[in-house]
Amino acid sequence: MALIVQKYGGTSVANPERIRNVANRVARYKALGHQVVVVVSAMSGETNRLIGLAKEIMPDPDPRELDVMVSTGEQVTIGMTALALLELGIKAKSYTGSQVKILTDDAFTKARILDIDQHNLKKDLDAGYVCVVAGFQGVDANGNITTLGRGGSDTTGVALAAALGADECQIYTDVDGVYTTDPRVVPEARRLDKITFEEMLELASQGSKVLQIRSVEFAGKYKVKLRVLSSFEEEGDGTLITFEENEGSMENPIISGIAFNRDEAKITVAGVPDKPGIAYQILGPVADANIDVDMIIQNVGADGTTDFTFTVHKNEMNKALSILREKVQGHIQAREIHGDDKIAKVSVVGVGMRSHVGIASQMFRTLAEEGINIQMISTSEIKIAVVIEEKYMELAVRVLHKAFDLENA
Ligand code: ASP
Ligand code: MG
């Protein structure tokens, strides 16, 4: 007997028929003698619909009230899923985040989980119930409803698995696993049987949308065994996210996947004095405004000045530009400040990079052969990311997928 947490995404609970399918799968696991906790998202499209409604009333909605509204999507699907299980004659009980007591901080719309009370769930599981828990939501110390950020049900699933000491956390979605890249861009993309946790973390942070990045961080911290599977197929083992690397690196593919992301914009502060403290004077006010910065480049100085370039989320480019123009430009005597949101970031990821040289040059040659200009580069031990013009993004992903032979195992 094992304890399994199964998380179902929005497309897997999009209508009563699909919710019945979920119940049938849960029933099969119960029949094998397992204990099952089910975490569900809202029906697909529902969270967007609720956010839209809020914005019709207040264009930039108050975050506390927004969370009160958007958390209702998951409250509907836990009830429906519990009903579907009851219809099959299976003991089931639904739980909102606050009924479990998924305690979070009070950062509405992007709250972090602080603690999970496993007492009620454990008692029900031992009494033979399937516990159906609302994803994406929690409660703060003052009893306010909070949500965990878009895609947050993944994090609920992994956090519950960690808190309950589950044997496996299964993430059911509309794809049958983690692919070498998005099959909509590269039809030859291949499903990976397994991928290391570190690679998954890089892919998620570089733009792969399969798992919310926080859920991967959580899985890493608590060593939760995670598996991504399709809810539309009965068979198949999906992709296992492992903590083991095969030491004999022959077995490791050098590159496991290619991620891409159109969500960033580039800001250049040109002609700044090349002297100590400049990076801090530029990025300090940006950080104070709670704007996340991703890649950063500072050129070597020529004739006493230099250019400083960094990327932020597209939605925050204008805010960052006005902060820089109002608070920083005059102060540091920068010649010019400009933004560019027609960029994309493409990243190749693989633990095999550690033991192979020449991956970066192969990547750059491949892009050069297509005439694609590289604007920024950043690397980690297992990742090389480049910023290029947005219109070349799909081409870049396709040629890199081929150059690294990702279509063949
Ligand atoms: N329903 C929420 C969203 O759409 C959470 C989730 O699906 O994971 O972002
Ligand atoms: Mg999701």
Your description of this structure?
It is a single chain. This protein is α/β, with parallel strands linked by helices and about 400 residues long. The chain is about 35% helix and about 25% strand. The chain is built from 13 helices and 20 strands. The chain has an 8-stranded mixed beta sheet with strand order 3-6-2-1-9-11-12-10, with helices on both faces. A 4-stranded antiparallel beta sheet has the order 13-18-20-19, with helices on both faces. The protein has a 4-stranded antiparallel beta sheet with strand order 15-16-14-17, with helices on one face. Helix 1 links the parallel strand 1 and strand 2. The longest helix is centred in the N-terminal third of the chain and has 16 residues. The protein is globular. The relative contact order is 0.10. The mean pLDDT is about 95. Bound molecules: aspartic acid and magnesium ion. Aspartic acid binds next to helix 7. It catalyses: L-aspartate + ATP = 4-phospho-L-aspartate + ADP.
List keywords for this structure.
four-stranded antiparallel sheet, alpha/beta, eight-stranded mixed sheet, single chain, binds aspartic acid, 35% helix, binds magnesium ion, 409 residues, 13 helices, 20 strands
